[in-house]
Amino acid sequence: MNHTLLGFVILYLVVSIGIGMYAATKVKNTGDYVAAGRSLPMFMVIAMVFATWFGAETVLGIPATFLDENLGGTISDPFGASLALILFGLFFARKLYRMNLLTLGDFFRKRYNRPVEVVISLAIALSYLGWVSAQVTALGLVFNVLSDNAISQAEGIMIGAAVVLLYTLYGGMWSVALTTFVQMTVIVIGLLWISKLVGDMPEVNGIAPVVEHAANAGKFQFWPEANWAAIITFVAGLLTMGFGSVPQQDVFQRANSSKNETVAVWGTVIGGSAYFLFAAVPIYLTYSATLVDPAMTGELLARDAQLVLPTFVKTHLPLMAQIIFYGALLSVIMSTASGTLLAPSVTLSENVIKEFLPRHRMSQKKLLWVTRTVVFLFSLLVVTYSLWALQSETSIHQMVENAYKVTLACAFVPLVAGLYWKKAGNAGATLSIVLGLAVWIAMEFIAPEAALPPQFAGFIASATGMILGSLLRK
To answer: Are 240 and 96 within 8 A, CB to CB?
Structure first.
């Protein structure tokens, strides 16, 4: 075990916790905790959008999928994920910012009614279980690799979850904002420098040979086969993430923390565009490993493709590069984990639990305590799900892909219709949710491998329900 490398990683974790605890001093009420007082400038919003989405699946999951399949296999992420961020910035951020909401669930209450708010808020919170668990699982993998198996992946999951919980629990959105800005700096500088080191290796010799080798191996095959089943699966993969990620509290939270609506719009669009472009860097690094050490990558591909990049860095790059890489890797994971841990917890406390509490006795401090309690409880749920996923060998990329099925099936249509269709009403929203969830869940049991994916069938049913319910009610 490289004790120097492990020591630097532990130091980085301590610094991150310190920044997060400093951020806690800025939290005076629930508004500060959830939206950082709506005061963040453009550069910080861009950093938060970029770093929150540039997570474990971007560094470990997407490159592993690229090696196992091809570029078309990554249609959901980064293509669908970037589409979601850009769509949200262009078509949703300005309208929602002007409504001065605390959570996205508040929109469904104002536009429709309380039952719609509760059901969609529960669906949004549920969608984060796979998303946060993917990050925590990646932390476990990192600790396992760093310690040369002295720390098991299950133990690493619990350690990583505890670290993220500690600074998110106290600092909230201020903690996410400050730690994310530091983490984004480490991500960009670190990965670009490591790309330079790898490009200088004689087996790699720059970017062009890697691209040429990947092209010859058929890795840039992107478009589906010319048959309806393949085309529908391809489009559904894009839109599950592209549409399903739009009605999400973490995306809304970043835009809503902006100091004005212009920052909310363009901070999200620029952050989403930067995410798409920079997602190519881990793919380049991982594919380079196949040129430098084919034997190692072949063995790891047969076992777990997610291990290729961290193992390659640990065995073929100098100590300083290892320190920078693992610092950057921890940065991307923790920045995503903290933001995505806060989002569902805030949604549950504000849009589900709060209404059942006695209002006349609920001060701002008590509301803040309730939100922090939900953050803690959701963290326990995440650890439990992560350990189950580890046993069932669910990949990080699969965990993220699965996260947005429920919001595509029941939340996207009510959000779009509520903002852009005046005739959308409570009956339409209710029927949209009921049909969307019913068809999606039924298809998951009846025909999970059908040409029309279950979540996409649910999405179509949701749109049908909104139109029929709203028009018939009128």
So the answer is: no
Residue pLDDT, tens place only, 336-375:
777 778 788 888 888 888 877 776 555 667 777 887 888 8
Report in angstroms the alpha-carbon separations of 319 from 2, 5, 146, 194, 326: 9, 7, 12, 12, 11
As assigned by CATH, the class of the 3-420 domain is mainly alpha
**365: which 2 tokens?**
């401090």
Q: Domain extents for the chain? A: 3-420
Q: Judge if pTM exceeds 0.90.
A: no
Q: What angle do CA 282, 286, 291 make, to 5 degrees?
A: 145
Inter-CA distances, 144 with 118, 150, 162, 385, Å: 39, 7, 16, 18
Bond before 78 cis per omega within 30 degrees: yes
* Residues 235-286 pLDDT 10s: 988 998 899 999 998 889 888 888 899 999 999 999 999 999 999 999 999 9
Q: Measured between alpha carbons, how far is 261 from 97 in angstroms, rounded to an integer?
A: 6
The H or E element spanning position 187 is helix 153-199
136 close to 361: Cβ distance less than 8 angstroms: no
3-class DSSP state for residue 317? coil
